[in-house]
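SEVERITY: medium
COMPONENT: batch folding queue
REPORTER: lab tech (J.R.)

DESCRIPTION
The queue accepted two submissions in a row. Attaching both inputs and their returned C-alpha cells so the on-call engineer can compare them side by side.

ATTACHMENT 1
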Amino acid sequence: MDPLISRFIGVIELLLRVRARSRGELKRRLPAGASVGDLYVLDVILAADLIAMGDLARRLGITPATATAAANRLVRNGWVVRVPDQDDRRVIRLAVTPHGRRMHEGYEVHREQLATSVLSRLSRDEATTLVNLLERIAVDRHA
C-alpha cells in the first residue's frame, strides 16, 4: 500500500476515535432518552427557524417516518413544539423552544471547544488550509 494512503487511513481512524470520544462525553451531558443525533436534528430545525416535517426529512436525508420519530423525541424532551401551518392545516411545522435553544447552546459550546483544541495546534494559515482541504473532500464526497 502506498505509504501516503496508509497515513491517510490512520489519520481518518484517529479522527473517528476522537469523534466517538467527543460524542460519548456529550452523551453523558444529555438528559435521559436524548441522543447526540437529536442535537443534530435540533441544529437543522434551528437553522430553518420553523420547518415542515417533509423539509426536515429531506434536509437530513431520512424518511418522513424517521423524521417523525426524531421530532417525537424532541417534543417529548421539550426541545421543540409542533406548530400548525397557517396556510395549510395538513402541514405541521417544528419550532425550537427556549429549553431547546439552551440545549443547543451547550452543544455549540462543546463543538467549539473541540474544534478550538484541534485547530489551536496549528498556525492560522495551517488551520485555514486544513479546513479548506477538508471542505473540498467533504463536498466532493457528498455531491
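ATTACHMENT 2
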Amino acid sequence: MALSSKTRSRINNICNMSYIVVDVESDGPIPHKYSMVSFGTVSFLSLPIHIKTLSMEEIIEKFSAFFPLSEALINYLLSVVEAFDLRKNDYLLKYGQTCNYMYYLQQGLLRGYHLDEEWKETSSWFMREGNFVTAVKSYFTGQPTLEPIHAVEDCQLLGIHRDHLDHAYLNFMEFNLPGRKLTEKYYVLADERASLLRRLSANELYLHLKQNEPWMFQRVDEQDIASYMGIDRSTLSRIKNMYE
C-alpha cells in the first residue's frame, strides 16, 4: 500500500520536530539515548537524527502491506515509536532483564543466544535488517529473559512499547490483522529453524545455510555460527574445507 502525500508529510514533520517532556520522576533521567537538556523536571528532547523519513515510511508500509491502515492509526504509531542505537557488542537485552518492546531492525545484525549451566553461549538465532525482533517469552509473559540479544554490528532500531502496541490493538481494529500475520510469519520461521536443526546433519545444515543464508558467513563470527549449528569451531572449519 502506497502512503498518501498527507501521511508522508506527517511522517516528515514527526521526524523533524522537538518535544517538551515533563519527567515526573525527577530523581532519575528519562531513559533511552535522546539528546537532552534538563531544567528541573522539564526536559527538552529532540528525536535522534537517525529517525529518517524513509525509515518511518518503511515500518508503516510493513504494516500496511497486510491491511490498509487508517490515518488515525498511522498518526498514533508515529507518535509512540521510539528510536534505539546500538554499537557493535552492545546488548539490546541482557540476561535477566524484561523485554517491553517490539523492535524493527532498520540497520545492522542481532544475535539471540542462551547460556548453559557453565555460562557457555549457544546462538539461537540471527536477525538482520528489515525484520521485527523481540525476546518472545519475556515480551509476552513479562518474565525476565533467559535469552540475551546482542548486537553483532552497529544497529539502528525503531521500537514500540508493549503498552502502546496493546493500545493500538484495542483501539484500532484494523491493526489486529497485521499483528496476527507478523506473528504467524515469525512463528513459522522459528519452527522451520528448529526443524532444520533437528533434521539435518552438520554437513547438510552447512550446505543449507550457505545456499539460503550466505550473508551469515559474511557477517557473523565463525564461533557463533558453529554454536548455532551445535558443533565446535574446529568441526565447522573442517566442513568448510570439504566444500570450498
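NOTES FROM REPORTER
The CA atoms of residues 122 and 227 lie 5 Å apart.
No errors were logged for either attachment.
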